[in-house]
Design goal:
The structure is a single chain. This protein is α+β, with helices and mostly antiparallel strands. It has three helices and three strands. Strand 1 and strand 2 form a beta hairpin.
């Protein structure tokens, strides 16, 4: 499967409109030199960001993919699990385990 095929599947399955609504509701703004600072990103900018995340992930991790491989930025998490790429938009995360 080509990189473009993988991205096409991700974009077909992912609800960017829902993410946009959440980001507007939370007033979630990105501050970055890549995007217009201090604005909720447009769907187009979110997709560009996901492509950049995917390219970075694919170039730096392919060949070493494990069930725990992943990259996170701007609320998006791209990971590889059970032979598939998975894109999430994460608002809150909790970590648990052997805390001291």
């Amino acid at each position: 499967m080509s990189k473009q095929d993988i991205l096409d599947e991700i974009f077909e399955d992912f609800d960017f409109e829902k993410v946009e609504k959440v980001m507007i509701f939370l007033d979630w703004k990105w501050a970055s030199y890549h995007y217009e600072s201090n604005r909720v990103p447009t769907i187009e900018k979110m997709k560009e960001h996901v492509v950049n995340l995917f390219n970075s992930y694919y170039e730096n991790v392919v060949g070493e993919l494990t069930e725990h491989s992943g990259i996170t930025s701007g609320g998006f998490t791209l990971r590889y699990q059970q032979g598939k790429y998975i894109l999430d938009f994460v608002v809150e995360t909790s970590r648990w385990g052997n805390h001291k």
